[in-house]
Structures are given as C-alpha cells and as structure tokens.
Structure to design on (474 residues):
C-alpha cells in the first residue's frame, strides 16, 4: 500500500471507530466482556503461533513467551473479567458540608477512540495488555505494534482481523511513518509505551488535539544493595531481572549501587547466578536456548558503543564483554570502575551490560539517584527496615521492589507506571481501566433548601453573618 492509500485507509478506519465509539457508550458491560472472552480463547488457540513468532523475531524461548507475555495478558484478562462490573459501576461519594442536600456519584465513561502505540521488547504483552484495559473501559482501539518485531506484529494483526469488528479494534503494522500519521488524528486517548525521546514526540502531537495520554517510558532504574542485604538472594534476583530478554526490559535494573564493603563478595555470586539461570551444564551462552538476542543491528551497535566507550574511559570488564554482530549475540557483561560521566551511566542501557558502582555511604547513593532523571523503578536490597524506609522516602521513582527486581510489573493490583521522565499515568488492572475512562462527576441537586443557597446573592447582613459562621467551620 503506498503512503497516500494507507493514509486514506487509516482515516476511514478512524472515522468508522469514531461513529462506533458513540454506540459503545450505551452498550451493556456484558458486550465488553464478550470481546475480552473472545480474546482469551484466541490466545489459547494461537499460543504456538505466538511462541513461534517470538522465536523468529528474537529467539525468545517459548517458555519465556508463556511466562511473561501470555501469562500476564491472560492474568490481566481474568482480573478484568472478574472485577469489571465493580470497576464500571457508578461510585457514590459523600456530600461535604457545603453541598448538603445534594447526592453525587462518579460515572466511568469510555474516553472514545484510543490509540495504543507499542514497543518491541515485550511485543504481545505491551500491545494487547493495554488493549484489554481499553476494551474494558468501553473504547474503540487502533493498535500500532512495533515494526521491529514483524512476525509478532503480523500475529497481532491476524488476531484483531479474526476476532474484532474493525470499527472496534483495528491493527496497523508499519514503521514510524504509520505512527506519525496516526498521531495527527484526533484520538481521545493515546497510550504509548516506549522511550522518553519518542514519548515527548507523542505528547507534543497529542497536545495539538488535547488528547489525554498515558506514557509508559523507560530510563535508568537503579538497584541499591546495602551492607545488610542478603547477597545470595540479591544476586539471584538481579541476575534474573537484568538478563532475561537480554536486558531489553524497561524495568530491568540498569545499574547497581552497592556498599563498597560488599561489592567484591557480590560480584562472584552474581556471575554464578547468571550462569545458573541462563545456561545448562556449563554450555556457552552462544548456544544456550535460555538466552535471547538483541533485537536488531541498530540496537546491537548502540549497546556495543556504550560498552566500548565505557572501557575506553577506564571501566573494568569483570565478566563477559564478548559479542557477535551477525547473530546479534551479546554476552552477559558486568563492569566496575565506571566513569560516572560516561554515556553508559547517563543513557538507558537496554541490553545485557550491568555497571556496578560502589558507594561509601548510603546518603551518597541516594543523592546519586536524585541527581538523575526519575527512574521507572528502583530496587532496594536490604534487611534493615530503617534503610528501606529512608531510601523509599528520600527518592522518587515510578515503582519500587524491596528485596526483588522488576516483579512489581506482574502484580496487577498495583498501579504500574513511571514519573516524569519515566512516564505519565498508570496502567494495569483497575488503574488501566481508569486510564481509559473519563471519571465523570455527576451531582444531583434536590428541590428546596440546600446549603449552596446560603451563598446566593443578594449579599445581605444576614448572609454576611452566615458566611462568618461558615468560615469558622473550616
Ligand atoms: P521507541 O520509543 O523507539 O518506539 C516505540 C513505538 O513508537 C514504536 O511503535 C515505534 O514505531 C514508534 N515510534 C518510534 N519513533 C517514532 C517517531 N519518531 N514518531 C512516532 N512514533 C515513533 O521504543 P522501543 O525502542 O520500541 O522500546 C524501548 C523503550 O521503551 C525503552 O526506553 C524502554 O524502557 C521503554 N519501555 C517502557 C515500558 C514501560 O512499560 N514503561 C515497557 C517497555 C519498554
């Protein structure tokens, strides 16, 4: 399809969804659930096709696809189906003193036509997960999966073509030019997952139509390991969260800040855990089925560039460091002795390199984190409640795990999202439903006497007296 034809087609689908979105407002919740049920069945039937597409796109192990991509979408579906009636029901609110006589409630209305722009790193989960929330809230959705995982994107397109009316869900594959055209359309809500750089482009485009946005972005998520931490545990959880998906996880620990007195004990434990988790029987990482690849050549060169520059600036390779461009293999790599002004300590790594930075006092580690843009996640490994609460209170981040890494993403009763540079708005479960809803306040007045009449003009001596009395109450 040439770009003119594509644009005309996109405009046509948008207009179709716009009309349909008005119909969806008055639909029973049951219809929303039916759509989500259909999706659930489709995922179960097409599980192998999704696994195969993931494997072709970046050699993701089928069990990893099951465990991270499918299980989480299915859990989101189950949670949504179980609670949607409650979430969508109008919520009564109490009248304050100034509103005595009124009755009020919050009605959750669909935002309308929504756009979901997804990244490549968890290409099914991060496209279909937000779609579940959008459908639960009664919206129509246009999906734009990532062009970097073409096989998974094709599966997502097939899913929407097979089970949804295009006036409700429609998928557009393609690259940046497709996103750019979509971003010109007057969507009611845009849900974007990706880098802070593109997040800013999305927010600027949304401003032209004053579309609301949810921006799920990235950044450098630190892991602070204190002297009181259980180091074996910290090593295992860090290895799993950092090197799964080859470090291409938004909530992966980006770098470690560790007490200088324990760093040399921690590094061998971490290496041991990386080998235990990602290889079998001492096989090389190159042939391990449990270790996936960098997504494309561009990202491979980016990660290699970060490593080369860090080494040139004095970083010491404590583990790994090798790579193979044709197969986009990158060995798990641990660095120490970093220059804090090197790019690897400034930019999100999004690859299998873990810098380890030591600190001599916890206050300095906290100050280091606070000097950086607010991260998507922050991890604390410590057995001291005091240390935990100090770090929690003195830093700002999208989310926190204490004595683990990354798994808060999987907990659908917690809001997930970033703060400022790492994102705007929250998603998952009830919070995802809210992101795609307008919380409409409705106030019903009664006839006759209500407090508000006290403040009507004319402003007589009597009303002055009443006002004096009122003001004293507050
Ligand atoms: P990206 O920002 O490059 O791309 C994301 C989407 O935006 C893609 O669909 C792409 O087609 C589109 N896009 C790219 N350039 C565009 C442009 N100029 N105009 C309009 N659209 C454009 O991100 P990515 O490389 O796919 O993913 C990696 C980033 O995503 C990392 O920063 C990571 O931390 C972040 N991420 C965040 C989360 C989260 O939940 N917060 C999850 C996964 C990834």
């Amino acid at each position: 399809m040439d770009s003119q034809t594509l644009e005309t087609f996109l405009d046509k689908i948008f207009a179709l969804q716009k009309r349909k979105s008005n119909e969806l407002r008055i639909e029973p919740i049951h219809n929303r659930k039916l759509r989500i049920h259909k999706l659930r069945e489709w995922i179960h039937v097409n599980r192998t096709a999704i696994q195969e597409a993931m494997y072709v796109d970046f050699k993701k192990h089928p069990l990893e696809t099951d465990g991270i991509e499918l299980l989480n979408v299915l859990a989101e579906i189950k949670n949504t189906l179980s609670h949607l009636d409650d979430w969508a029901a109008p919520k009564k609110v109490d009248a304050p003193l100034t509103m005595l006589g009124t009755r009020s409630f919050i009605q959750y209305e669909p935002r309308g036509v929504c756009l979901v722009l997804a990244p490549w790193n968890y290409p099914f989960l991060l496209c279909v997960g937000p779609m579940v929330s959008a459908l639960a809230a009664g919206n129509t959705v246009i999906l734009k999966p990532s062009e970097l995982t073409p096989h998974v994107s094709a599966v997502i397109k097939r899913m929407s073509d097979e089970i949804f009316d295009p006036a409700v869900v429609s998928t557009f594959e393609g690259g940046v030019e497709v996103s750019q055209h979509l971003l010109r359309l007057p969507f009611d809500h845009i849900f974007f997952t990706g880098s802070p750089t593109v997040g800013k482009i999305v927010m600027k485009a949304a401003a032209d139509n004053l579309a609301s946005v949810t921006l799920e972005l990235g950044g450098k998520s630190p892991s602070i390991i204190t002297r009181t931490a259980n180091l074996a545990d910290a090593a295992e959880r860090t290895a799993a969260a950092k090197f799964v998906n080859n470090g291409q996880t938004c909530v992966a620990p980006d770098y470690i800040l560790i007490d200088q007195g324990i760093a040399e004990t921690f590094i061998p434990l971490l290496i041991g855990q990386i080998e235990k988790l990602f290889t079998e029987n001492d096989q090389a990482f190159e042939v391990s089925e449990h270790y996936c690849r960098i997504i494309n050549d561009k990202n491979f060169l980016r990660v290699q560039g970060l490593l080369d520059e860090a080494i040139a600036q004095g970083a010491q390779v404590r583990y790994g460091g090798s790579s193979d461009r044709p197969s986009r293999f990158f060995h798990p790599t641990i660095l120490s002795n970093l220059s804090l002004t090197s790019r690897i300590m400034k930019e999100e790594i999004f690859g299998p390199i873990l810098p380890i930075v030591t600190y001599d006092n916890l206050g300095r580690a906290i100050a280091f984190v606070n000097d950086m843009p607010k991260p998507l996640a922050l991890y604390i490994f410590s057995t001291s409640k005091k240390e935990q609460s100090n770090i929690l209170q003195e830093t700002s981040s999208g989310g926190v795990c204490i004595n683990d890494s990354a798994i808060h993403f999987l907990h659908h009763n917690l809001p997930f999202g970033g703060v400022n540079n790492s994102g705007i708005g929250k998603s998952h479960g009830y919070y995802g439903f809210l992101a795609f809803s307008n919380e409409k306040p409705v106030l019903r007045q009664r006839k006759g006497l209500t407090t508000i009449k006290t403040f009507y003009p004319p402003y007589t001596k009597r009303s002055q007296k009443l006002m004096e009395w009122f003001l004293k109450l507050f």
